[in-house]
Amino acid sequence: MRNVVVLTLASLREALRDRLLYSLLGLGAVVLGVLALMAPLTLGGREKTFHDAALAWIHASALLTMLVLGAWTLHRERERGIWLSVLARPISRQEYLLGRLAGLLGTLGLVIGAATLIYLAIGWATRVPLLPGLGTALLYVFLEMSLLAGIVLLFSTFTGLVMTLFLALAVFAAGHLSADLLRFAALTESGFLRALALAAHWLLPHLELYRVRTSLVGGDLPAPGALLGALGYTLLYFLALVGAAAAIFARREIR
Question: Which residues of 47-72 are buried (b: 16+ CB within 10 A; e: fewer)?
């Protein structure tokens, strides 16, 4: 456990030195500030527009952080030979992966937290009322991006940087279309295509579970059962991704 904590803290320090985080936060602050200043010129829906843009920015910042930092961290350490130096110590491969993953999730929490503070500060300065379901919205963002972190980790154990980014983006996009696969399976007359669509539907992450921003901005909070279902699904799928990544990494030849 001590090795995991040390690796987690090292990953957090590396992430905090990355300019990407500050660029995303700075750009978002400028956009939200301009939007808040222009809000009086809009015809109604001032608060909804501001909240929707802020939540979209937080989601996009978390997405880019998980994709870029998540994919780049492992590949950079492999190219620089850090894998060899770290694993030459009394640190197991499972501890190494868990430490890096925990650092990635910690970075995700920091990005969401920092973006939220900027959003709240601008909202307070421009007298925009607080969104009632803000905590729930942030939790859904964290759950969805946690799955993305697991997906990036899995692909990083056996593919290159470009393929990791491509495959992670493909799975992320397909995960938001998984419900359409059920409709396609119901409409197609081909048994093979139906079986393929159903298999893809159950294998891909059901990321539409986390799309609650529009309803939250509109004032509709998710039912407690829906939130518990999202938590349980995220935990099970996340553990499956980490288990698969650990199994592959344990058999990989380190050079």
Answer: bebbbbbbbebbbebbbebbbbbbbb
